[in-house]
Amino acid sequence: MESRPQILLTRRWAKPVMKALNESYEVTAPTGDVPFARTEILKAQDGIEAFCPTAFDPVPADLIAALPESVRLIASFGVGIDHIDLDAAARRGLAVTNTPDVLTDDTADTAIGLMLATCRRFWEREKTLRDGLWAGPTPGGALGTKMTGKTLGIVGLGRIGHAVARRARAFDMPVVYYSRRRDPDAEVSLGLVWCETLAELLGRADIVSLHCPLTEATHHLIDRAALAAMKSTAFLVNTGRGALVDEAALVEALRDGAIAGAGLDVYEFEPRLAPGLAELENTTLLPHIGSATRETREAMAWRVKENLDAYLAGQEPKDRVV
Ligand code: NAP
Q1: Extents of the domains making up the chain
Q2: Is the Cα dihedral 114, 120, 122, 128 positive or negative?
Q3: Contact at 8 Å (CB) between 79 and 56?
Q4: Is 241 a catalytic residue?
Q5: Measured from the CA of 289, which atom of ligand 1 is nearest?
Q6: How many angstroms separate the CA atoms of 237 and 258, rounded?
Q7: Exposed/middle/buried for 192, CB within 10 Å: 0-12, 13-18, 19+?
Q8: Residue 15, φ and ψ in degrees, nearest 5
């Protein structure tokens, strides 16, 4: 029997995809839910052709340099590519792929969920109820902020930014956006208004939602000055990447009332939170679950397989980023 190409996964994926992978490839993957640590990755035998990390697994230059000579492809599970040192991959001549599109809806849903939960103080009110402290409904006290009709500011009008803008129409929200490139089609079809600068968007939006990738240029895009440029009644929502925001400055802004609240799915130093963040009641904090549905996680795994199948068969993979 012809030998099958060898691939290495840092984590196990959905069962049907693992079954299909095992039919096409010789798969090295953890047997349980614990991901491969760096030492286990480095035990990989020469002969492995593709290394398949997830967006939660750092792939720095020294790990790339230490991968077996036989590796030709890094096929990542997730759309973000900030966890991979792309320059190091390019220097070694490795191709890199990601999994766009299939997680767009879930991540946009998560952003809208965070907006609503934070404006309406869902978490804080739910906690009161579960803690047995609810004395029944009252007309005043512990009131939230109405989200319908508020101005939404989208930073990074890509796949997920567009999906959030589409959802915002159901809430009658005027939408302003800031991206490096203007999108005249979306301005017409979705009624979006372009802001020439981030500062302009921060001054106009009642809710600022981050959807750009983490790069050198966007690291701490929302710093102390940016937070000060937001309305004191405004909310920040981040389903992009934690380090888009200076988290220590965010804690101060939330504590001092410089902004009204924040809904976060991602953190600067995951899985740790900045000191003080967890104690703040004007936040909704999710543990990086933007794409965490059964349907989407399986679709992401199939998308990695498509990229593997194409590249290892000598074709151009659909989601090549390097
Ligand atoms: P995308 O289609 O590439 O969209 C990103 C947009 O950001 C681009 O359209 C780009 O437009 C804009 N952008 C890039 N640099 C910018 C800058 N310096 N300032 C302002 N805008 C900038 O990517 P996507 O699929 O929507 O995903 C976006 C990000 O969401 C991913 O990179 C990932 O980090 C994050 N994500 C998180 C989760 C989660 O679980 N929480 C799940 C999926 C994705 P221009 O080039 O015109 O600026």
Answers
A1: 6-102+294-312, 104-285
A2: positive
A3: no
A4: yes
A5: 40
A6: 15
A7: buried
A8: -55, -50
What is the whole-number distance in angstroms between the Cα of residue 13 and the centre of ligand 1? 24
d(CA 82, CA 214): 6
The stretches of 155-281 forming alpha helices (DSSP H) are 159-169, 184-189, 198-204, 224-229, 247-256
Amino acid letter, residue 5: P
Q: Is residue 127 over pLDDT 90?
A: yes
Distance CA 186, CA 184 (A): 5
Q: Which two tokens stand for residue 26?
A: 């010789």
- The two three-digit tokens of residue 18, written as one number: 């693992």
- Among residues 241, 247, 268, 297, the one annotated as catalytic is 241
pLDDT (tens digit per residue) in 146-197: 999 999 999 999 999 999 999 999 999 999 999 999 999 999 999 999 999 9
Among protein residues, the one whose CA lies closest to atom 45 of ligand 1: 180
Of 272, 312, 239, 299, nearest to 101 (Cα)? 299
Identical fold for domains 6-102+294-312 and 104-285, yes or no, is: yes
User: Pick the catalytic residue: 126, 255, 270, 295?
Assistant: 270
How large is the C-alpha radius of gyration of the chain? Answer: 22
Which of 273, 278, 230 shows the shortest CA–CA distance to 253? Answer: 230
CATH number listed for the domain at residues 104-285: 3.40.50.720
Residue 151 tokens, joined: 């101005």
Give the CATH class of 6-102+294-312. alpha beta
Closest CA to 187 of 177, 173, 196, 197: 177
The per-residue pLDDT for range 231-277, each reduced to its tens digit, is 999 999 999 999 999 999 999 999 999 999 999 999 999 999 999 99
